[in-house]
Design a protein that fits this description.
mainly alpha, Cyclin A, domain 1, 4% strand, Cyclin/Ssn8, Cyclin-L1-like, cyclin
Length: 151
């Protein structure tokens, strides 16, 4: 029984076969949370968390510039997080993995982008982040939101 508009309503339990989804039955088992492969390779927890956040920001920014739907960006971030729960940041470069995740996510969510476009966007973001901007004084400046993220 559940309350809806202060009335008791009977809730039917639906049978979805043998699949049971609860918070106790999460997809990532607790033994994968710590120590992660990066921690086993000597990376401290704070640095790993910063790299995870930076990678997700990179995927979000590149997805925005590629005009991908939000669900594709979220899929890319999930792929990124799951990859680094089984592989190490020390052995696999964050930017290359983020690029692969956004490529795969765009195809999974049926909003594919050319690999050349993805490479160009990541190169542009890297230029913004390092300060090697190809803008001259007469050209339009990059959006402030990008500079605040990677500045």
């Amino acid at each position: 029984m559940a309350l809806v508009n202060n009335e008791a309503v009977e809730v039917k339990k639906l049978n979805y076969g043998r699949v049971i989804l609860t918070l106790e039955n999460c997809i990532l088992p607790p033994n994968k949370h710590s120590p992660t492969p990066s921690m086993l390779d000597g990376l401290d927890r704070e640095t790993e968390q910063d790299l995870r956040i930076l990678g997700c920001d990179l995927i979000q920014t590149s997805g925005f510039l590629l005009r991908l739907p939000q669900v594709a960006m979220a899929t890319g971030q999930v792929l990124f997080q799951r990859f680094y729960y089984s592989k190490s940041f020390v052995k696999h470069g964050m930017e290359v993995v983020a690029m692969a995740c956004i490529t795969l996510a765009s195809k999974i969510e049926e909003a594919p982008r050319r690999i050349r476009d993805i490479i160009n966007v990541f190169h542009h973001i890297k230029q913004l982040r390092t300060g090697n901007l190809p803008f001259s004084s007469g050209l339009r400046q990059p959006p402030a939101v990008l500079l605040s993220i990677w500045g």
